[in-house]
Each structure stands twice: as C-alpha cells, then as structure tokens.
Amino acid sequence: MNRLMSLLLTAGYTMGQAVFLFACHQVRLRAAGGGPGLVLHDARLFGLDLDGFSVRDAGRAQEWVPQLVFLVLCSVLTYAVLRSAPADGRPRLRTVLALLGATLLAAGIAEPVGPALDPRSPLVLPTADQWVGRAQVSGVTALPEQYALWSCWLLMPSWAAAWLLRRWAPVRMLLGTADGVAGEEAAAVSTVGRRRDVVCAGLIPMVLLAVAGGAVLRHTNVRHLDQSATVTFAPELWLPYHPPALVERWSGVLYPALRMRPLDTEVTAGWLATLVVCLVFLAVLAAGLSAVVRRAAGRHPVRLFMNCWYATVLAAAAAALVDSGLLQRAAPRVGAGTTGLVRPFEVALGDAVRFGAVWGWATGACCLGAAWVLTRRGARTRPRVQEEQLSHAE
Question: Which pTM does this prediction carry?
C-alpha cells in the first residue's frame, strides 16, 4: 500500500483510539450523573472489557502514560504493517493478523509502564505474584490486551470501504493503482530446506525457555506438603513452589505454560496440561514463522524481524486461549476462576502477551540471523555453480 493511503488509514485509526481512551470514561461519568468518585459497572463487548483501559485520572502519570505509549507504538506499527500490505490495497488475512499482532505487541509493552510509574510499587517490573495480587485487588487484569483485541478491528471498516470504492478515481489515486496494475508479490524463499532452517532457528529461544527457563508455577494443582518427609517447619515443604531468585525476578514476563519439565510439587495432571499448552504454543509459532519466512525474500530485513515478533505474540495469545478454555479444569490458574475474582482468560492473556512482547524480539533476531547466513552462503556458492556449468559447456 502506498504512503498516502497508509497514512490516512493510520491517522483515522489512531485518532479514534485517542478519543475513546481519553474521553470514554468521562463521558460515562457525565451520562451517569456522578462525580469522579462514582464507580461504574463494567462494560463488556464479546466478553472483553470495553473501557477498562481508558484514562480514569489524568492527574496521575500511571493513569495516562500507558495509554499514550500504546497509542504511539500502535500508530507506528500499524503504519508499518499497512505499508507492507499488497499494493492493490486488498485486505488479506496475513495483513489482518499482522495488525492484530502489532496491536497486541503495543499493549504488551504499554502494560508494565503503569506499575513502573506507580510510586507504591517496589519493583520496576512486577513479579508473577505481584501481577496476581494487582488483579485480585482490582478484579480485572490484562486491560490493555483486552482493549487491543477488540479495538484492532476498528480499522477494518475504513479499509474495506476503500477497497470497495477502489474503482473510483480519487480512491484509485490514494491506493496507488490508478494505472490498474497491482504491485508485485514478494518472491518466496527459494527452497523448502532453507525455510525450515530459518523456522528452526526462530524456535530456538522459545525451546530454550521451555527446557531451561520459565519455571514459574501459576496453577493450583500441586501438593502443598511433602508426605514422605518428617514433620518439620521448613517452608520448602509447605509452599507449593519456590522458584530460584533469578526466575522469581523475571517471573512477571515469563509465560508459565512454556515449560516442558515438571516441578517437584506439581501433580501429574497439572504438568500434562501445562505441556499441552506449551506444545500448542510451539506448533502455532512454527506455523506462523513458516508463513512469514515463505514471503520474506525481497523484503526489508526489519519486516522479517517484526513479523516474527508479531508471530510470537499471536502464538502466545493462541496458547492462552487453550490454557484458559480446554485445560482450566486440569490446572486452574492462581487467582482466577473459582479461586479468584478474575476470569481465567484474562489472567492467561496477560501472561501470554507480556511474554510475547518481552521475548518475541529473540525469535525475530534468530530468524533474521539465519536468513542472513543462508543468503551469504548461497551468494558464495552461486559463482562456483556458474563456473562449473561454463566449464562443462566448453
């Protein structure tokens, strides 16, 4: 898509989000006839919190800076995705998924900004237990992610209208298809083997986290006491799980279901449920990376890097859907469902998107590095093949 059309769609999308985020709560307060202290009921759309991410108190930085960070990041990433869309301006599934991934990435980066600016928070990056505590106190969690899930579709009507009116002369000029010829599609990666190598390289960081890191327990299907030990007051025998200090420090941005090894106090059913979610995440990520790499040839390296990052966020969100739906009975989440006030999907979604936003760059970097190495290797072997063909011809 050309620069002008991408800029217009992004500007309208960002302006609508800004108006909603900074004015929705105040409008609801005036409509209810109450003051700033009035507590409004939750407004939900398809089960997602409608205005939980909107600004409540503009006098505190932690109440409006995350929204500003989200708007800036979302506008920049949306413009980049639209610029990489096909030149004919037709809405396609891969572009829509990239927009969803970009919006979720902006939400995952903006969410920790609020706790970092909160003077009552002892740490810049909250741990997993602190995220659970904040969710239980407020009754909701993953507000930026929930907002991103439904607001990303606000761009679709204007984009679809531009596509339906593409034969009208002004729209044809905006779309850059006045000559009636659509842009060329990017060539696919030459061989299946090279695509497989790049995808495997992109999976390395996530597999390493699943095998060695990410030992964070967030479900309640555990043994609280080692029955084989003698009576003692050792905390390690009474607590469900006590992670190492380094893991505990980063537990707020580690997806607890990305774990292949069972923990000492974990019941077998809980570990199997965690393993299934982990395999779903890796399978969806592999499929997403394969689709990204297939069209990576001839494109800017930054696009490959960002698309792999989006694929990581989307794979984590898909794993969160499985985590909260199919496996909730086998491994109930701490602070969610029957054991808490927060919905299981909200807890799982917040963990997943934060993880994808913080660690997805590693997937993009590995894919980019593998593609660069394979390209350099192919460039070195190509002259040799040409020389051999000329020698045989002579």
Answer: 0.84
